[in-house]
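In the design runs reported in the main text, the only information available to the sequence generator was the tokenized backbone. The following block is the verbatim input for one such run; it is reproduced so that readers can re-run the procedure and compare outputs position by position.
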């Protein structure tokens, strides 16, 4: 079994946004809780209150992971036929485990860069199955936790690792136009 371990670094600006969202949800829970006890039962109060509680718990768990982990790693393991992505903390706890991916079905593997509304870039990996003529049917592999990120060199090391494990895979994004023009030749 071959494996690759990459150290992820903390994203401070996204952490500040997460703190702001936690405070917003926490204040919302308090205000809807006081309104609930003052006015009595209402479905509207219950629904909005439960949404705020779930948001508070989600953001609080992200903050806990950010503060409690000194080091977070992206682990990629392959036995030559399958590949798995997951994250591991310095204490050995694993989380954010991907499904087991069959390498024989993968035709193309590449990095996906998504721009957020806060002008930050989120990265993930994606693969297309063999014979796919468009990237519309790609499968995303969310390998990075939301408050952690890998450097560009480390993201490329994962591509190299996949190529070393399964040499017949194509790396990098290719548009449908490029695929069609390549197939005509």
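Verbatim output:
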């Amino acid at each position: 079994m071959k494996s690759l371990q990459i150290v992820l670094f903390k994203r401070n600006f996204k952490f500040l946004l997460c703190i702001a969202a936690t405070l917003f949800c926490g204040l919302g829970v308090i205000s809807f809780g006081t309104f609930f006890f003052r006015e009595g039962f209402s479905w509207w109060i219950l629904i909005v209150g439960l949404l705020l509680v779930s948001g508070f718990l989600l953001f609080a768990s992200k903050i806990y992971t950010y503060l409690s982990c000194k080091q977070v790693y992206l682990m990629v393991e392959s036995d030559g036929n399958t590949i798995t992505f997951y994250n591991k903390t310095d204490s050995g706890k694993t989380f954010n485990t991907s499904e087991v991916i069959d390498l024989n079905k993968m035709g193309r593997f590449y990095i996906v860069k998504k721009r957020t509304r806060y002008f930050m870039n989120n990265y993930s990996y994606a693969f297309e199955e063999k014979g796919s003529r468009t990237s519309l049917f790609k499968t995303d592999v969310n390998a990075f936790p939301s408050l952690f990120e890998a450097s560009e060199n480390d993201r490329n090391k994962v591509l190299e690792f996949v190529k070393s494990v399964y040499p017949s895979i194509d790396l990098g994004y290719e548009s449908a136009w490029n695929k069609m023009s390549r197939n005509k030749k």
